[in-house]
Design brief:
Blueprint lengths: L4 E10 L2 E11 L4 E5 L6 H8 L7 E6 L2 E2 L5 H8 L2 E4 L11 H12 L4 H14 L15 H13 L5 E5 L7 H18 L2 E5 L3 H6 L3 E6 L2 E7 H5 L4 H8 L6 E2 L2 E2 L2 H12 L27 H12 L6 H13 L22 H6 L5
Parallel strand pairs: 3-8, 3-9, 6-7, 7-8
Antiparallel strand pairs: 1-2, 1-4, 4-5, 9-10, 11-12
Helix pairs in contact: 3-4, 3-5, 4-5
């Protein structure tokens, strides 16, 4: 089973440039989470900080209860064995075939025999749909296959945490969907904690159990998917609908004057901003039939029910409707249309500043 990953007040800078500050969130054990944000907001930097490749100036990062910002190098080495990482380009060795690329972590970090290594590698290559391609070099295969080879290598040490950096980078929408399905199926099989760093709207809407968003050096929000997908927070709504009007601009940030001009143009009908808003919450991607039941779904359901009264009203209704669609009608009484039925109409700031614990 995956382990919990928790950050408390984490701040990272490069020289005088602040990347993000005071980031506090919890990735619940065995669930799939996504971290969103415009390009250049430090999503990949956050991912590298979780594995200890970059050290924050302030704050703590707890991996299964151990703070990696204060532990010894020996402890960090052991903790890193909990991770499997899929980098944007797959990060394969160009001179090695796919078999040797996938076997590399086993040869580097274990004392397994070559026969044991072969059994594990072929199992992971089969899982990622690469059986028959094990003798090919990275330069001889497509970008999608390189991604899957990178994922196979990330899985050979049976990680409890899988970090995925921009899985859609360089892939067309169809292959991005295949890779997303593969991540959900892997979560069903090994119950790993998964964090996907992305700016892909479709992936964000359909794959994760939890969503967070970085913008202007802050974690704007983090919580159950329904909270962000129903959010009226301007930057979240703009990003998840791909609007031009809103706080995000070409250079990431807009000043108030520019936002006012764009809003006036939108109200005058110059921009078609809002008519194409995606209504409701699209169903979450499920594991392929025949796969084990995804245990994280049930854990997440119980966790969300515990904090239901703290969630915004729109999120409460969306959760109720989602449960009814899945046949889970005994958890809450059917929504009557009266907001008073669910008394906890906490603002989204509550979710933002008090991330849900797993």
């Amino acid at each position: 089973m995956g382990v919990e990953v928790r950050t408390e007040g984490v701040t990272k800078s490069f020289g005088s440039q602040r990347i993000w500050q005071d980031v506090t969130l919890t990735l619940p054990s065995g669930e799939v989470s996504a971290l969103l944000g415009p390009s250049g907001t430090g999503k990949s930097v956050f991912l590298k900080s979780l594995i200890g490749l970059l050290r924050p100036e302030r704050g703590s990062i707890f991996i299964d209860g151990t703070d990696i910002t204060t532990c010894s190098n020996k402890e960090l080495y052991e903790i890193r064995k909990l991770f499997g990482v899929l980098f944007q380009d797959g990060a394969l060795f160009g001179s090695m075939n796919l078999f040797d690329n996938t076997a590399f972590p086993l040869r580097e970090h274990t004392k397994k025999s070559e026969s044991e290594i072969r059994q594990i590698v072929m199992e992971k290559l089969e899982l990622t749909g690469l059986l028959g391609a094990e003798n090919k070099l990275p330069g001889e295969i497509s970008g999608g296959m390189r991604k899957r080879a990178g994922l196979a290598r990330a899985l050979v040490l049976d990680p409890q945490i899988i970090l995925v950096d921009e899985p859609d980078s360089g892939l067309d929408p169809v292959r991005t969907t295949y890779l997303s399905q593969l991540l959900i199926d892997i979560n069903a099989q090994i119950d790993a904690t998964i964090l996907i760093v992305t700016h892909n709207i479709n992936l964000a809407r359909s794959v994760p159990d939890n969503i967070g968003m970085l913008f202007r050096r802050q974690l704007v929000m983090f919580g159950p998917r329904e909270v962000l997908l129903t959010s009226e927070e301007p930057v979240v709504k703009q990003f998840l609908n791909g609007y031009m009007v809103g706080p995000i601009g070409m250079s990431e940030e807009k000043d108030e004057a520019q936002m006012a001009r764009e809003q006036a143009l939108a109200e005058a009908g110059h921009y078609d901003n809002g008519t194409d808003e995606i209504e409701g919450i699209i169903p979450q991607m499920k594991a392929t039939p025949g796969m084990p039941v995804r245990q994280g779904v049930d854990r997440r359901r119980r966790r969300v029910m515990e904090i239901m009264h703290t969630l915004p009203h729109a999120a409460q209704v969306a959760i109720q409707e989602s449960m009814e669609e899945n046949g889970d009608t005994q958890v809450l009484p059917a929504y009557s249309g009266n907001p008073a039925q669910y008394p906890g109409n906490a603002t989204e700031a509550t979710v933002r500043h008090n991330p849900t614990n797993g």
